[in-house]
Specification:
This protein is of the alpha+beta class and 64 residues long. It contains two helices and three strands.
């Protein structure tokens, strides 16, 4: 399964609380933090909700 790296690049201040909760559920704790997730429909849906706050890159490297 492929992996994606998601980086939180813009503050969630002034946006809906549900978008901050989505960032938390993606595993973010602070701005400019990166997390790696398996590329799945549920993760893509969460990313789509906060696409204006994050940057998404395909993770290169070994996959099992």
């Amino acid at each position: 399964m492929s992996k994606i790296r998601v980086t939180w690049i813009k503050s969630a201040i002034g946006y809906e609380e549900s978008q901050l909760k989505t960032l938390r559920s993606l595993g973010f704790h602070r701005l400019n933090q990166s997390v790696i997730h398996n590329d799945s429909n549920s993760v893509r849906g969460m990313i789509n909700k906060v696409r204006h706050l994050v940057k998404v890159e395909e993770e290169l490297g070994k996959t099992k």
